[in-house]
Amino acid sequence: MQDLGKITSQQLYTFWKNLSFGLLTVVAVLVLSVLLPFYFSTIIALFASAYLYTVLYNNKLKRNPSCMIIPYAIFICLITFSFVSIVINILNIWNILWIPPELNFFQYPYIPSLLLCPICFIVMVIIHFREGKLNMCISCKLKNGDPTERGKIGALMAHESELQIRNLMIIFGVITTIIWTYYLKFYINTDVNNRDWYVFMWLTIIVFVLDEVYFIARYFNLYLDMKENNEIITQEELRDMTSATYIRYYVVCDDYVFISNKVTDPRAPLKPMIDTPFFTKRSVNGITIPEVTNIIRRMTGVRDGDLRFFFGRKIIGGRHSLLRYFYYLDGKPEDYPELNAEGSWMSFDELKRIYSFTPDKLAKIYVSDITRLATIMLTYKIFDDKGFRKNKLKSYRPTFSLKEVRNSNLDFQDDKWIKISLFNSDTPFYRVKKWMKGIFGSGANKKSQQWN
Q1: Strands 320-329 and 244-253
Q2: Which SS3 state, helix, strand or coil, does residue 270 take?
Q3: Measured between alpha carbons, how far is 131 from 144 in angstroms, rounded to an integer?
Q4: 253 Ramachandran zone, left/alpha/beta (phi>0; psi -120 to 50)
Q5: Are the C-beta atoms of residues 257 and 335 closer than 8 Å to each other?
Q6: Strand pairing report for 306-315 and 268-275
Q7: CA atoms within 13 Å, Cβ hemisphere of 423
Q8: End-to-end CA distance of the chain
Q9: What per-residue confidence (pLDDT) applies to 238?
Q10: Residue 23 DSSP SS3
């Protein structure tokens, strides 16, 4: 599993490039809005948002997409800026709303930063508090797995995307405070002098350039540290890398699972964790069921178990696969006092207690797999396939056992019940939102099926 602790140099570069495109797009909109006739400002912003939309679209087509939270956030900022600018100017023309000349793109002097920066700040605040709950984040997790499943690159993107959003939120907040304080306290609206333009435009551009320099230095140093720790896979190494299949087995007997509390994570070798002791790697692209069965029979020493597929994903740029299987043993744990691996039987109730209260004792990928299992099983028990509660009592909290998992016919590879857990009748205005999704989401759903 050591390859999960590595990322490619291209992934790190792409992640930085997405941030740079977002910052440079905002700078371009500000500069062009001043250099060109003022009434072109909304057109420029719409063209810039269209460009960012193509970046978002092309990223979805990639085999190993990057985190696009910053381009998405800037896209929303520019769309909102264009809409608000057009609306307030139309209302001003109709004498419904008065706006100062600095916000009127039909008059001189028009200062776009007075409106763009506060809008960007508000959007960043909203995205900061909704990060992970956005549709694009949910779709990414469903398609590529959560950060734990994606290994080092998943953890890096989760941490750095939060840092980038928080960074831009602070920057836009500070700039908004400076320019509006200057506008209200020091600006004289007879004309715009050089000092005014410095505060309203060049200050914003300089801050963005300095921020870009900071992130260049940050990611370059990060690259050097990861390369020194052998956590970087170059493009040449990736091309020469042999495809591999990783397999994790969960050996289950009755309502007990076989675990080891001495498994170490390559990212934290000094901290033993609870994990399955049965995992292996095969340097092949794909593996047959008979071979998967023979491997677990040799690893456990038990030949009459029942093998069931759990779920799997592509990892490391789509070159490797990570598969999970259940291996069910009949009888009781006492019938298998020793397996061909160091470990012990743990009741599922005890495992659930550890998962709920001290999950840091479990390997991260173990936590991720239990989360998927529990989400699908509990959602299936609570809701029907249309998202409505089977039991109208909202206080109903079902549980499940490993025996139920074995006897169920659920497809744990399918994300159907994951989606229902995220959007169901407990969601406010569920029927209205479901109806609107049926109308406006049909085309998007067809496209997403093509992308997947």
Answers
A1: parallel
A2: strand
A3: 17
A4: beta
A5: no
A6: unpaired
A7: 17
A8: 25
A9: 62
A10: helix
The token pair that represents 117 in the structure block: 């920066």
The span from the CA of 247 to the CA of 213, in Å, is 42
Distance, CA of 163 to CA of 392 (rounded, Å):
41
Q: Which residues pair with 249 in a beta bridge?
A: 325
Query: Half-sphere exposure of residue 206, counting CA atoms within 13 Å on the CB side?
Result: 8
What CA–CA distance (Å, rounded) separates 310 from 325?
5
The token pair that represents 437 in the structure block: 């999704």
H or E segment to which residue 347 belongs: strand 344-347
d(C-alpha 27, C-alpha 78), whole Å = 12
What are the structure tokens assigned to 353, written together?
Answer: 């207690």
- Closest by Cα among 242, 246, 343, 244 to 292: 246
**pLDDT tens-digit series, residues 206-232:** 998 899 999 999 989 988 888 887 777
DSSP state, 362? B
d(CA 146, CA 139): 10
pTM for the complete prediction?
0.78
Contact present, 45 and 81 (Cβ < 8 Å): yes
DSSP state of 243: P
Would you say residue 150 has pLDDT above 80? Answer: no
Q: Give CA–CA dist 251/246, Å, rounded.
A: 16
Q: What is the CA radius of gyration of the chain?
A: 27
Tokens describing residue 14:
């792409």
- SS3 of 384-436: the string is CCCCCECCCCCCCCCCCCHHHHHHCCCCCCCCHHHHHHHCCCCCCCHHHHHHH
Residue entry with tokens 């998943």: 154
